[in-house]
């Protein structure tokens, strides 16, 4: 009786076969009735046929266990496959295309795990509010996928296997840090650039000079430079663990690893406590949440008070309705909105129970809309500003494509909840959430699902990277350095670029602060996990070139960003060039000078 294969596993087989170019599926059986499926991938279809024995040696196999319950899996012929299935049932292969497919598949699952952890963390923040949650749990949860991959890279197998695979963990650690401070940092400068004034300060929302290397750029606040200094300090454990290599000592290596582990753990705790007792990032989020609540209130008011729908059925903006809203606010009909007219309108908008400062709200709207900086809002500026608000509302609320009153109501409810929670209205936190029980259940479920996925697929991802490295003879460090950070940091990178695209100093400050915070957690929490693994398993610390690039990139970018708040566009090229330079340094030191 033929073996039945679930549809999703069959698709996996077909995709892997398509990646190789040929597909063959056969049922293996033994005299005692055991069976399984073998996916035969010809290694060289151009060679001549030399008999059954030769065909077997030219074929590699992506193996899956038999679907028959209670049957023991028959061992494949030694010449058919040398790979070992993770957990005994996940597919494996010895070919480069097959392993590349598995790296992409498991990398996507790790990306989803990171996404679930991020979504669950945000919901948890809604339930419990800022403070310990925002300062302690959220940074740790954000670094969890990287920490999990680093842990499993050297946790299983013999000491020799662990020593070989732990290089993947170091590649992820270095690659994640370098990617955040080079590619992501430079991209945020590019998408967030504004015109620079005479004193080199970026002018919010004004971008008329194109890609002028010295005439455009970004500005941040002083507190963001504090975050950069903290990031620079976080490289201290790397220096400690390298002391025996720096001074060419023949002993004390394990002691240096232990001291580095202790210092990294202390820095993790100190950084989390700093976030709890000095929550300036959360105060900045409060300001941003206040602006979003003004946005939602104005849009909701316009939607509900006879102006008509702001969006058509297909989601496109209704410009005539936006123009009606402008003329309603323009009390003296002079074609422009002055501060008093705007404040009168905002006071008339019902913001429910949120204690909103109308003066601050007017300041925020004026700063967001008045791109000509003439202290009035022209009609064109008003229309452009409302369109930007609508686009942000679309991104904030997931809908099925129908933009109606319910869509804006959802956005208004969300922004009200964010404002209340960040403001610290503890008495109203539960009431601000329509269904706290369901929200709590959803938050816990997302966190558990993300954690379980990260734990389950970290090991097979490491195995796939190691297999791809063996099949292509490319060092596993370079594969994990380039590819694995994309799986664990993609969602954070997209959020950072969206924030930076608003071209505002306060959102850019928050964006860069998050980048520096992510690097700080890599240099402390993730390094602590790595050092703990090296110490417990008795592995050899032989990562001088890798530590050097982390130290160089963090030190250069840390010093570069710690003592300045204005960054012209040319600075993005400094960040971009550090990425390939890091790879070149590791290659030259390890394979030309024999550091490894």
TrEMBL record:
Keywords: Antiport, Calcium, Calcium transport, Cell membrane, Ion transport, Membrane, Metal-binding, Repeat, Signal, Sodium, Sodium transport, Stress response, Transmembrane, Transmembrane helix, Transport. GO terms for molecular function: calcium ion binding; calcium:proton antiporter activity. Residues 317-352 form the EF-hand domain. Residues 1-21 form the signal peptide. Its main location: membrane. One of its GO terms (biological process) is sodium ion transport. May function as a sodium/calcium exchanger (NCX) and participate in the maintenance of calcium homeostasis. May play a role abiotic stress responses. Belongs to the Ca(2+):cation antiporter (CaCA) (TC 2.A.19) family. This is EF-hand domain-containing protein.
């Amino acid at each position: 009786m033929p073996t039945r294969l679930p549809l999703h596993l069959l698709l996996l087989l077909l995709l892997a076969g398509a990646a190789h170019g040929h597909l063959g599926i056969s049922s293996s059986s033994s005299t005692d009735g055991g069976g399984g499926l073998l996916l035969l991938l010809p290694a060289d279809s151009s060679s001549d046929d030399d008999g059954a024995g030769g065909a077997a040696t030219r074929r590699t196999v992506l193996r899956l266990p038999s679907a028959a319950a209670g049957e023991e899996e028959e061992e494949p012929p030694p010449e058919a496959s040398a790979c070992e299935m993770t957990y005994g049932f996940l597919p494996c292969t010895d070919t480069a295309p097959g392993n590349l497919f598995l790296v992409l598949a498991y990398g996507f699952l790790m990306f989803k795990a990171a996404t679930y952890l991020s979504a669950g963390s945000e919901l948890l923040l809604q339930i419990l509010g800022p403070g310990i949650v925002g300062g302690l749990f959220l940074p740790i949860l954000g670094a969890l996928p990287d920490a999990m991959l680093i842990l499993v890279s050297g946790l299983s197998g013999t000491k020799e296997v662990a020593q070989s695979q732990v290089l993947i963990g170091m590649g992820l650690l270095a690659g994640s840090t370098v990617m955040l401070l080079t590619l992501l940092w430079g991209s945020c400068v590019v998408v967030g650039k504004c015109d620079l004034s005479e004193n080199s300060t970026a002018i919010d929302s004004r971008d008329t000079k194109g890609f002028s290397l010295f005439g455009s750029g970004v500005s941040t606040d002083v507190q963001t430079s504090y975050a950069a200094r903290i990031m620079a300090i976080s490289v201290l454990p790397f220096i400690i663990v390298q002391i025996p290599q720096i001074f060419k000592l023949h002993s004390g290596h394990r002691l240096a690893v232990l001291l580095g582990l202790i210092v990294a753990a202390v820095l993790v705790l100190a950084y989390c406590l700093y976030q709890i007792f000095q929550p300036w990032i959360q105060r900045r989020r409060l300001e941003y949440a206040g602006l979003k609540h003004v946005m939602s209130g104005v849009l909701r008011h316009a939607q509900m008070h006879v102006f008509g729908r702001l969006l058509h059925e297909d989601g496109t903006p209704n410009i005539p309705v936006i123009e009606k809203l402008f003329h309603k606010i323009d009390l003296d009909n002079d074609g422009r909105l002055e501060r008093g007219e705007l404040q009168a309108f905002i006071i008339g908008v019902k913001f429910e129970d949120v204690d909103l400062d109308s003066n601050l709200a007017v300041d925020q709207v004026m700063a967001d809309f008045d791109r000509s900086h003439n202290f009035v809002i022209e009609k064109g500026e008003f229309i452009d500003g409302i369109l930007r608000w609508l686009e942000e509302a679309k991104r904030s609320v997931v809908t099925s494509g129908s933009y109606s009153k319910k869509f804006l109501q959802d956005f208004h409810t969300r922004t009200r909840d964010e404002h209340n929670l960040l403001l610290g209205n503890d008495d109203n936190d539960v009431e601000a959430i329509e269904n706290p029980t369901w929200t709590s259940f959803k938050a816990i479920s997302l966190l558990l699902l993300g954690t379980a996925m990260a734990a389950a697929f970290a090991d097979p991802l490491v195995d796939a990277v190691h297999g791809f490295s063996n099949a292509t003879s490319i060092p596993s460090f370079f594969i994990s350095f380039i590819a694995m950070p994309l799986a664990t940091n993609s969602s954070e990178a997209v959020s950072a670029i969206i924030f930076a695209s608003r071209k505002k100093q306060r959102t850019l400050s928050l964006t860069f602060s998050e980048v520096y915070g992510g690097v700080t957690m890599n240099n402390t929490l993730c390094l602590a996990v790595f050092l703990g693994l090296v110490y417990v398993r008795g592995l050899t610390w032989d990562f001088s070139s890798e530590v050097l690039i982390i130290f160089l990139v963090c030190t250069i970018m840390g010093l570069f960003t710690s003592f300045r708040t204005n960054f012209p566009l040319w600075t993005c090229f400094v960040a971009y060039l550090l990425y390939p330079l890091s790879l070149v340094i590791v290659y030259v030191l390890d394979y030309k000078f024999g550091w490894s």
